[in-house]
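Proteins fold reproducibly. Take a tokenised chain:

. . .
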Amino acid sequence: MPRSGTMKSSEVRPPASTTSRRLVVPQMSDAIVDPPLAQYPKHTGAFGRLIETASQAQTTLASMKPYADDLKLVTDEELVILSQVRGFAKLMIVQEAIAAEVARRNIAASLRVEQAIDRNLAALGEVRTSLDKVRTATETSSAATVTALSQVHQSLDLLRIATDSWSRWLTRLTIAVMVFTAALLVVAIVQVTR
């Protein structure tokens, strides 16, 4: 699948939150580290000093900059094609520049993968936190359920004791009523027979 080759140098830098647990490629930020030379105001001082070592530096830079800019804009498929063309035709851009662009894109892709891994690790941390919360809630709920079941058990025991107590009292009352009824019957019979 072809991808757009347009990429700013700021996309190559790792985010500030990236940890150093993996190999970190030293990157230069977009901010100019040292003051630019007057001849090359849009570039770092280091770039200006290096380009000055070339013969006809201003002309070389002016002629190569459009090609370098175009090279950043080609798609990945076109970049592969350009890397193969050198064997068949002469290009105005050197093979090393194509290789450097391939390397830049590989570094950018590696950094995006690293950022994705960091996001996945953060998401896994959030999942773990959520699972810990669910576990804690489940344990709390289980403890509450055990307490409630214990209270129900105690209530059933009290009800059983109360039922036994009421049953004994009812049995005694029934016996007393029967004895009283028998006594009344005996008294009634005695009075009738007299």
Notes: Residues 95-193 form the longest helix (99 residues). Helices lie at 45-51, 57-73, 76-85, 95-193.
